């Protein structure tokens, strides 16, 4: 972590008081404290990750509080008008511009092996098959020459993975991902869902995708959810699934230095305007099947457009902090699967990927998911009891405040701050106790053990 100058530290903590608000301890009632590495899974092949790498990643996910993992697998259509959905196992056969071109179809044996790794380590699995046109096109624009024949082929594809999910114990299966051009075909979809339920006993979802942004407009301001999913004739089959997945990519910041408070306010307004009506119409809980913020400048302004650029790990952390604040206690929200926990743990020196490994955002997940930093409040409570003169319990707010990368409390009676860095999980002090110097005093793990947290 970069060491801040004393002047910058003082200014930063003034900003903390001015712009941040107390937040709860962790998410409440979420089914899915999930993670993924993208769809299709960007780093799952027949040979990667290595067993030792996957073991390390799973252990770190558990430390972060992850309890579900999303695994994606792709089949392909030769063209947008094709009536056939088929696997491609040979990378050389995949068009270089296809959206699934990163990976060919993963074999059933490999898929079941990876599913077993997660489940034996106490992490449930969400299997998310997808169809990728084998060309420069998006799955949401497919236009088969005969929809009934296409659904026959597609049903074979989905029931294949329904049987795989049943025998491997995967706890949830998506029956569709971003197939926007098909969503008015209610009878076809209901028949497919019935076929899946006849061979699979787990939870079933449909991932709407293509919502809350318009991927083909430069400004990404069009909200496809309104056009595609609130129309009375569209998506009636969603009442037959257990969960509705949403891809969350709207702008929640107006500038590169937006505060957590602004991001929170913007995200809450979008949720109220566009997500609540979906819940009210179908009566199903919603989760984010896709959500990601790269650790770069302006990623919260447009997560799809700004995936590379100037490194800004704080913006990534702040964006996720805002999302947690908005959705942590919504009774209709079931959780999320951010493309943040790759299957190989690595230190991203460039700082430009969606990965949160070794970044402040990882600590944000630890706190909200009930992982390593979830006990920060307990530690601060102990400090107040043990050192009441230094940390009188008349601190501002009832929980914790956040300004990347610190979770903290401020005590106006003593003009002291105590914080935990979500970057390196160390405890920091600032104020009269340190002569105005931002001072590291030890590891969070050691202090938490002393405090009995």
TrEMBL record:
CDD domains: GH113_mannanase-like (cd19608). This is GTA TIM-barrel-like domain-containing protein. InterPro entries: GH, GH113. It comes from the Bacteria. It comes from Pseudaquabacterium terrae.
């Amino acid at each position: 972590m970069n060491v801040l100058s004393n002047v910058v530290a003082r200014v930063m903590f003034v900003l903390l008081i001015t712009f941040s608000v107390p937040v709860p301890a962790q998410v409440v009632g979420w089914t899915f404290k999930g993670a993924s590495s993208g769809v299709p899974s960007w780093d799952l092949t027949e040979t990667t990750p290595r067993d030792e790498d996957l073991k390390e990643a799973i252990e770190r996910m558990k430390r972060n509080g992850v309890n579900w993992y999303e695994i994606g697998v792709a089949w392909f259509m030769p063209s947008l008008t094709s009536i056939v959905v088929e696997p491609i196992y040979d990378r050389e056969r995949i068009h270089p511009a296809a959206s699934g071109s990163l990976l060919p179809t993963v074999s059933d044996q490999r898929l079941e092996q990876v599913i077993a790794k997660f489940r034996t380590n106490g992490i449930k699995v969400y299997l998310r098959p997808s169809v990728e046109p084998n060309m420069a096109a998006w799955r949401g624009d497919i236009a088969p020459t005969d929809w009934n024949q296409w659904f026959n082929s597609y049903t074979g594809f989905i029931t294949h993975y329904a049987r795989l999910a049943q025998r491997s114990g995967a706890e949830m299966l998506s029956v569709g991902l971003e197939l926007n051009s098909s969503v008015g075909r209610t009878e076809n979809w209901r028949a497919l869902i019935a076929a899946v339920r006849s061979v699979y006993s787990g939870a079933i979802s449909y991932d709407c995708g293509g919502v809350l942004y318009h991927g083909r407009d430069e400004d990404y301001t069009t909200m496809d959810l309104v056009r595609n999913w609130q129309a009375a004739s569209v998506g009636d089959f969603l009442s037959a699934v257990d969960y509705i997945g949403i891809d969350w990519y709207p702008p929640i910041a107006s500038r590169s230095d937006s505060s957590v408070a602004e991001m929170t306010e913007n995200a809450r307004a979008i949720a109220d305007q566009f997500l609540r009506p979906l819940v009210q119409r179908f009566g199903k809980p919603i989760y984010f099947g896709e959500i990601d913020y790269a650790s770069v400048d302006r990623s919260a302004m447009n997560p799809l457009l700004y995936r590379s650029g100037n490194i800004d790990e704080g913006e990534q952390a702040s964006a996720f902090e805002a999302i947690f604040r908005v959705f942590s206690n919504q009774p209709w929200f079931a959780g999320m699967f951010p493309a943040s926990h790759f299957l190989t743990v690595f230190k991203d020196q460039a700082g430009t990927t969606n990965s949160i490994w070794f970044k402040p955002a990882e600590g944000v997940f630890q706190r909200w998911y009930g992982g390593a930093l979830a006990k920060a409040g307990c530690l601060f409570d102990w400090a107040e009891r043990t050192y009441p003169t230094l940390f009188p319990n008349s601190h501002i707010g009832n929980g914790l405040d956040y300004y990347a990368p610190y979770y903290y409390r401020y005590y106006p009676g003593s003009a002291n701050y105590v914080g935990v860095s979500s970057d390196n999980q160390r405890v920091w002090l600032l104020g009269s106790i340190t002569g105005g110097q931002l001072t590291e005093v030890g590891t969070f793990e050691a202090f938490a053990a002393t405090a009995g947290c």
